[in-house]
Amino acid sequence: MIAEISEKSVTGTALGVYGCYESCRLCPRECRVNRLEEEAEGTGGVSLGYCGESSLLRVSYVGPHFGEEPPISGVHGSGTVFFSGCSLQCSFCQNHQISRGGLGEKITIGSLIQRVEAMILEDRVHNVNLVTPDHFFPHVHHLVSALRGKGYELPIVYNLSGYQSKRMLEMARDVVDIYLPDFKYADAFLSRRFSKCRDYPAVALDAISEMVRQKGFLDSFETGRSVARRGVLVRHLILPGKIQNSLDALTSLFLEFGPHLPLSLMSQYTPALPQKDDDLNRYLKREEFETIYNHALDLGFDRLFVQFPESPRGRGPSPSPFFPDFRRRRPFGGGSPETS
Questions:
Q1: Alpha carbon of residue 123 to chain centroid
Q2: Predicted confidence band at 9 (pLDDT cuts at 50, 70, 90)?
Q3: pLDDT band at 71; cut points 50, 70, 90
Q4: How far apart are CA 224 and CA 80, in angstroms?
Q5: What b-and-e string marks burial along 227-249, b requiring 16 or more CB atoms within 10 Å of the CB?
Q6: Range with the poorest average pLDDT among 92-96, 109-113, 325-329, 336-340
Q7: What residues pair up with 265 in beta bridges, in sequence order?
Q8: How much is the pLDDT for 340?
Q9: Which of 41-55, 97-111, 173-187, 321-335 has the lowest mean pLDDT?
Q10: Nearest-CA neighbor of 309 among 272, 269, 264?
Q11: Phi-psi domain of 257 (left: phi exceeds 0; alpha: psi -120 through 50; beta: other)
Q12: How far apart are CA 205 and CA 88, in angstroms?
């Protein structure tokens, strides 16, 4: 039986893998904050990393999600665990309530294990999908070890921003079965402007290369199974008005990995917070999407998932069904991308 780890014991001295929270280097920013260290007496808090989190585990949602790509969602849904905080902190984040807004509940690792186990048994999900987990890697390591110790063999999915350190990925090798990284930017100016990291394009390509080296491409294309069990699928969210970035991003992925890289094109961008860049205060135009989609076809990507725009939208109030509200018991609605 896995021993309970309380907030008190984790925020004390380093405990095995939980020592990663001391002088934290779990993400490429390497802010080296001691997330285990208590602040001065009377402040009532702990030190926070760039991700906005201490070593106190916080989770925003545990439950089945049907909006992932078909080999991930399957019939019964992907068993998602949405962690609070994020090491990338994009200004336009679709999940801003939890990545930037502080929404989420403190939870012990024992309670999280129980909730994930209940989800597996009651909802019959196809996998355990850990969304933005890298800044809580020690807890994730504990969670996965506990599930495997109980005999659960569901694939473990790492759902990531793409801005990951190779050091963390090397530690995660035996914890993860499927990687779902984003590749957001080929333009370093945009990554600096929107995510405060000029090095995103190079770091993300390096990280994705490590993921592919570990797991190969998503195996459902080779096995013919409807649900994947291993491999890498890369996602790209098309940003309104930033079409050259998307063209260059797809070209970079093609040159690095070739046409058989499983790739998901997403058109779901929804204005979440007011942006200084006015392009990001509107939805994607159909003609913008078509330009990127045609470029993917011209490059020859043959394992392509496509989220086609539902209807022409400007600045209207109708949100994408993929746009979550984490104040609700079930944050998501809508369907999944189609295979092209």
A1: 22
A2: very low
A3: very high
A4: 24
A5: bbbbbbbbbbbbbbebbebbbeb
A6: 336-340
A7: 236, 306
A8: 54
A9: 321-335
A10: 269
A11: alpha
A12: 15
| 120 — pLDDT class (breaks 50, 70, 90) | very high
Tell me how far apart the alpha carbons of residues 8 and 92 are, in angstroms, rounded to a whole number: 35
Q: How far is CA 10 from the centre of its chain?
A: 24
d(CA 95, CA 183): 17
Q: How far apart are CA 131 and CA 117, in angstroms?
A: 17
**Reported pTM:** 0.90
3-state secondary structure 217-284: ECCHHHHCCCCCCCEECEEEECCCCCHHHHHHHHHHHHHHHCCCCCEEEECCCCCCCCCCCHHHHCCC
For residues 299-338, one letter each, b for 16 or more C-beta atoms within 10 angstroms of the residue's C-beta and e for the rest, the string is bebebbbbbebeeebeeeeebbebbbebeeeebbeeebbe
Q: Hey, what are 146's tokens? A: 């506990």
User: Do residues 198 and 188 lie in contact, with contact meaning Cβ atoms separated by under 8 Å?
Assistant: yes
> What's the confidence (pLDDT) of residue 91?
95
Q: How far is CA 36 from CA 7, 151, 161, in A?
A: 10, 31, 24
Show Cβ contacts of residue 247 under 8 Å, excluding neighbours closer than 6 positions. 291, 292, 295
If 0-12 CB within 10 Å is exposed, 13-18 middle and 19+ buried, where does residue 298 land?
exposed
The pLDDT tens digits of the residues spanning 259-273 come to 999 999 999 999 989
Strands 338-339 and 304-306: antiparallel
Amino acid sitting at position 323: F
Cβ atoms of residues 63 and 330 within 8 Å: yes
Residues in the chain, overall count = 340
pLDDT, tens only, 26-57: 999 999 999 986 543 444 556 899 999 999 99
Average pLDDT, the chain: 89
